[in-house]
Amino acid sequence: MPASFLLRRALRSGGVGGAVLIYLAMVGMLEKFAPLDLVGTALPLSRLLVLSAPAVAGYVAVRPRIHAGEVQRPTAGPAMAAGAAAGAAAGAVAVAWMVLVRTIGVDALRGIFVSVTEGALGVLAFGLGPAAGAAVLVPAAAAAGAVGAAVRHVPGPVARALGLALASTLLFALLQRIVPTVLFELGLDPYWMYDRVHGGLTYLGALVVLGVSGVGSWQTAARRARVERRIREVPPEARRAVRLVGVAVLLLVLWVTPQLIGSVLSEIMGTVGVFLLMALGLNIVVGYAGLLDLGYVAFFAAGAYTLGLLTGANLVTAFGLVPPAIVAHLDFWAAVPLVMLVAAVVGLLIGAPVLRLRGDYLAIVTLGFGEIVRILVTSNWLKPLVGGAQGLRDVTDAAIFGIGFRDPQRFFYLVTGFCLLAIFVSRRLANSRVGRAWNAMREDEQVAEAMGISTTNYKLLAFATGGALGCLSGALFAVKLGTIQPGSFEIPVSITALAIVILGGMGSIPGVVVGALILMGLPGLLAEFEEFRFLMYGAVLIAIMILRPQGLVPNVRRMRELQEEERLQDAWLRAQEARGEALTGAGEEGS
Amino acid sequence: MALLECRGLTKSFGGLAALQDLDLEVSPGEIVSVIGPNGAGKTTLFNVITGIYEPDQGEVWFNGHNITGLKPNQITKLGIARTFQTVHLFPNMTVLENAMVGQHCRTRAGLFASILRLPWQRAEEERVRAKARQALAFFGPRLTGYREDQPASMLSYANRRRLEIARALATEPKLLLLDEPTAGMNPVETQELTRLIGKMRDELGLTILVIEHDMRVVKGVSDRVVALDHGRKIAEGSYEEVAHDERVIEAYLGRRAVESA
After folding, report:
1. Among all residues of chain B, which has the CA nearest to that of A423?
2. The complex's ipTM?
3. Nearest CA of chain B to the CA of A558: how many Å?
4. Which residue of A has its CA nearest to B107?
5. Global pTM?
6. What integer pLDDT is reported at residue A589 of this predicted model?
7. A95 — phi, psi (to 5°)?
8. A425/B101 Cβ within 8 A
9. Listing from the earlier edge strand, what are the strands of the sheet with B232-237?
10. Taking a C-beta distance cutoff of 8 angstroms, is the pair A72, A9 a contact?
């Protein structure tokens, strides 16, 4: 590849990398993440971000090129040079921006760009003065770019092991508020691994995690094929026994989890559980039946308010607490079946008008339904029933024999119980006549109808079933908080649930669990992330669509679907051929 | 009495008349071929019979019921199954699952039975599996064994066509509509399928209506041939009669060809 071309491309991707750096600084991410130490004090999350932009620029700059009918890949030397150039360019762009900001003056800019602060500039300058900072940033970015470019020349197995090791180190570093607590509760000393003062991994801890996971993944990669074969050879009865043991272990782990992670983290896990339950419901609608529902929050709200009204919640008014216009005083457990019944009715109400819609149109209309529900619950018209903007208070607790579940650690059990139930139901449905019908409908609605499946009924069934789980999650949400505020039922809830399903892999239950843990658990664990929650959802969704459209833990079936394109083309070509042949055939016979 | 009877079917799309006052009768156990040049209304006829389109005028009677205006899934349940001109499988479901979907309309396990996995539901699943395997086995070893668990999209083109027929067979139809079943197949495969179409009638007792372009196939399978052009029936009778009908030749080759012949 000619050097001039490499250089041009390096500058181009470096420029984009620099723009990313500026963006990260201007949204305030760099400053916000600066106190979050990952390893020792040398690597706060902000610094990792500053270095990763040039690294990606370097990686992108040396991508193969097709020129004059040949594939051109730069060799290691020029590639590293180009990567360094790209990184340096990114650094230089950031430096130029810093100079510009300084010239205009930070205070003058603050009026418009609230996040442009000394702190953000300080992160980009590695905590040094303007001149020294620039002198460090550019070479550091160049080095990062060179590393990014070098990644393409690391042999596959090594790259995989290394990638996994780095990813698990990052994960352990990000879980700095949960792992030490768990270790401590287990009676182990966490402080050789985690820094007591700064929170992140100690250098020793980082090295150990890096080494163990690197060696571990290297070893398992080598043995993987053999292990997989042995798993396949296990007889069905034994496999069943293994599965039972697995489930028992899982239950045991879940049983001790709240004690291990403590009250604060249990609280977060409770929220994760509520969203997991909701995403499991949405997974039936979107993942199984292929109906893109953007107004899923409607069910969440319906569940919460129905539970409130059935169990005797009160309205907050100017005259103090008053009971709503219609209210029952049931026990939580007596109300749950009714909530699910209401859910099914709501599912039918939403499902019936959209039966003829598909894809984009369905998405838009359901989005509208989500808004309708939000407007209804805040309206004056329904105020005597659901309390308008003030909402409901005094939602009952889900007590068994007088033992309540509002305490975060107990709530964990409640929500986990319902999630396990939802997983059980989802799995059973997936491998049944109903699941097959949904599947067939998702793949080709018209053909499913022609094969004797009433698509009308199965769409409604999907809305009702998924809606029941969505309502249940809403009811649990109300129990968890004890109050119901209309602000909790806005569009972002739908988007979050959908993001969970997409990130994990549509139609895949383990995927949904992983998706909920990442998208709900991480921002909960790291307060720093909370502010950028939706920015990160967007970034994660874009990344997943580009890099791994089938999701993190894909459903096998979905994976195939995405590889379908070329086969369709193949079929088309054959059909064309056939058409040609048939015509000649007919001609011969006719004359 | 005729198993299928179309009376005065008319269907137009905008100004284009796809079917014009078409009458068609198919007796039980008959194999009838529908031929005609492109755009003659053959596939529209299938779509009207199976309920995908509702006719503008006319009625479709099947097995003593007026099925005009019924939904496709209801018509399938009554006993009409079809294949499509371009293969329409469920590409990401396995071969066996595709055939099992065909059994949908003959089974009844719903939401709760499936969740609770009631004994009768399990027995039904076993039966569905067995029936689906039986339908696949109709094509000999091509769709059985290890192929059962392959996604349908991995099959060869001819096998996809076969699977589509197997899926239709799994609905346990009385009348089978095949839309260009041999399109895209090589001569050997075509010959084999021609033989199998006869076997479906003889062994499974099916009545078959088939759209076909390949005249060798038409000659090989048909008891009766119906020729369409511009949505009208222009000829009907044995293969010999229809193949030498002047209007049919004209429809395929145009007027001048007839004059010069």
Report:
1. B115
2. 0.93
3. 7
4. A433
5. 0.87
6. 38
7. -65, -45
8. no
9. B80-82, B175-179, B207-211, B31-35, B224-229, B232-237
10. no
